[in-house]
Design goal:
Number of strands: 18
Number of domains: 3
CATH superfamily of the largest domain: Endonuclease Chain A
Number of helices: 20
Distance between the termini: 32 Å
Length: 512
């Protein structure tokens, strides 16, 4: 009963209820307008035709466009208003001004005053491997994220191991801590972290905490940011949700970044909720991964944090005090990068595709969701058909009932081409990792789905000629030992209703 009452009074329930009321009013207005005038159908047909021309001429991914076009053509009465509200990804004036403000700050201070790596770093990678240098150059050019050496790296194959390392590094903080996560949930993990952060504030350390409002809507009470401010933290709540129909609801900060004194940085799959360290079991054993950086490359993570911070709080920041002060022995080449839904570039997806296209021996992947477009599907199929060992590990236990069938709907085509697919049977696979040929790896926050590729703010770290690649490969190999391999025979033995249901969900997956 307590859980039920908590659900009824929670922010998520209120938010959904208000949205449904607005949807109901919208449908009622449309139906009454349709009944009141004989001109409605010609008008709606004209508007639908105009919308279709607009969508066709847009720069969106073809699959995304086709999904919305299908909705509008099948049900223009309802499809057109919902495309205007949720499908049109044009940003408003306020968002454009916020972007311009940060961009001006970036150009003025970062490029003219603050550190950038020597060009020799890129040249060294180019001498080692022109293909890897080409991949790094793409990320640098599109994400504004330079390639670094003088960086020590460590890999954590489980959330609980990463959390131990995070606590140890936070204890050492002397100046500042930067905290940016999609989900924060009250529980053992967050209580331990919060207690330590309060100690650091009492010692004079400046702590900035930022979390996504929708990501934490079920896990934090209303007004929680005010409680944090009263404890002495600086707080930013990214894209605060308002209960009205608006395309801005789609844009979420899915990044996970923690920085200590500018010299140590963490990123990866874990959020601050107990299931990520297996203190609470929701979908079996939670498999995740995190990387820790020490040294020059942390600067990229710091800039990513402040991009979101300025965007969220409008605070003017002097970045010079956040520059890394220590250099560490190099472990290959390290390139943290961010991906934004507002720049029109699918950096994470294309970085993944470049790894696939350049693979000579193998590409191994872990992802909680496998909801991919034709471009990614083609790259995976061609690699496998060319003799590259392509393996993908997804969860056996799902966290979203309507997403898991879409993941499985992609199995058949991949298996036919020779891709090997495994489901992590102990529980939920949440790690987002790519590794190829023991030479290149990406560990970060980006799922292989449309929301991560097109609608979320994401981040990751690319490693070239680094020990991380072998550690990721070995971790995936150990994970495969615990997983069930999916066979083509199993997929072809599915009943017709199951295959049809998956196909329908897959058809509309770009707009879910």
């Amino acid at each position: 009963m307590k859980k039920f009452l908590k659900l009824l009074t929670g922010r998520l329930f209120v938010f959904i209820a208000l949205i449904l009321i607005q949807v109901g009013v919208l449908v009622w207005l449309i139906r009454n307008f349709m009944n009141a005038t004989t001109y409605y159908l010609p008008i709606s047909s004209l508007l639908a035709t105009i919308s279709l021309f607009y969508i066709v001429n847009s720069d969106e991914n073809p699959i995304f466009k086709i999904a919305w076009m299908l909705v509008i053509m099948v049900a223009p009465i309802f499809g057109l208003p919902f495309y205007i509200l949720f499908g049109n990804k044009r940003v408003g004036k306020r968002v454009a001004l916020q972007m311009a403000k940060y961009q001006e700050h970036y150009e003025r201070e970062i490029r003219s005053v603050l550190p950038t790596p020597s060009n020799e770093v890129f040249q060294q990678l180019k001498e080692y491997s022109p293909n890897l240098a080409r991949q790094a150059n793409y990320i640098a050019n599109l994400a504004g994220a330079p390639l670094w050496d003088n960086t020590e790296v460590e890999y954590y194959p489980l959330g609980e191991l990463a959390f131990e390392a995070i606590l140890e590094e936070v204890k050492k903080a002397k100046k500042f801590i930067l905290f940016e996560y999609f989900i924060v949930e009250e529980g053992e993990m967050w209580s331990s972290m919060l207690s330590l952060l309060k100690e650091k504030v009492d010692q004079g350390v400046v702590v900035r905490i930022m979390y996504d409002d929708l990501g934490s809507i079920r896990t934090l009470p209303p007004g929680y940011e005010n409680e944090l401010r009263q404890m002495g933290f600086l707080v930013g709540v990214f894209n605060k949700i308002k209960p009205h129909l608006n395309a801005k609801l789609n844009y979420r900060d899915h990044r996970k970044i923690l920085i200590v004194d500018g010299d140590v940085g963490f990123t990866g799959g874990i959020n601050f909720a107990d299931e990520y360290i297996n203190k609470k079991i929701r979908f079996g054993h939670w498999k995740d991964s995190t990387v820790m950086l020490k040294g020059d490359a942390v600067w990229n993570l710091t800039l990513m944090f402040f991009q979101q911070w300025v965007f969220t709080t409008n605070e003017d920041i002097s970045l010079a005090q956040y520059v890394p002060k220590k250099s560490y022995p190099s472990d290959g080449f390290v390139q943290p990068f961010g991906d934004s839904p507002l720049d029109g570039e699918n950096i994470s997806e294309h970085a993944y595709i470049q790894i696939i296209n350049h693979a000579q021996k193998y590409v191994w992947i872990t992802t909680p969701y496998l909801i991919i477009d034709t471009q990614m599907m083609t790259a995976l199929n061609i690699a496998a058909q060319s003799g590259v060992d392509v393996r993908i590990v997804t969860p056996y236990f799902h966290d979203k009932w309507y997403v898991h069938p879409v993941t499985r709907a992609n199995y058949h085509s991949l298996l036919k081409s020779g891709v090997r697919i495994y489901e992590y049977t102990p529980g939920f696979m949440h790690a987002k990792m790519f590794v190829s040929d023991d030479e290149v790896a990406i560990v970060g926050t980006t799922n292989m789905d449309f929301r991560s590729f097109y609608l979320h703010f994401e981040c990751g770290v690319a490693f070239f000629n680094s020990s991380i690649s072998k550690k990721v490969r070995n971790d995936i190999a150990d994970t495969i030992e615990l997983s069930k391999e999916i066979t083509l025979l199993e997929e072809e033995s599915l009943t017709l209703p199951v295959r049809f249901a998956r196909s329908v969900l897959k058809l509309f997956s770009p707009i879910m």
